[in-house]
Amino acid sequence: MNIDEFIKTKNSLMGLIYDINENEIMSHVEDGTLRPWITAWRRCAFEDTDKITLSPIEEDNTMTIIFAKHDGCDKEFIFEVPAGMYPVRNDVLWVDTAYGETVAVATSDTIFGHKVEQIAERFGAYLPLKKVKAYANRELQTYIENRIYREVGAFCQDREVNIQECYDLPF
Question: How confident is the prediction for the chain on average, in pLDDT?
Answer without folding.
Answer: 77
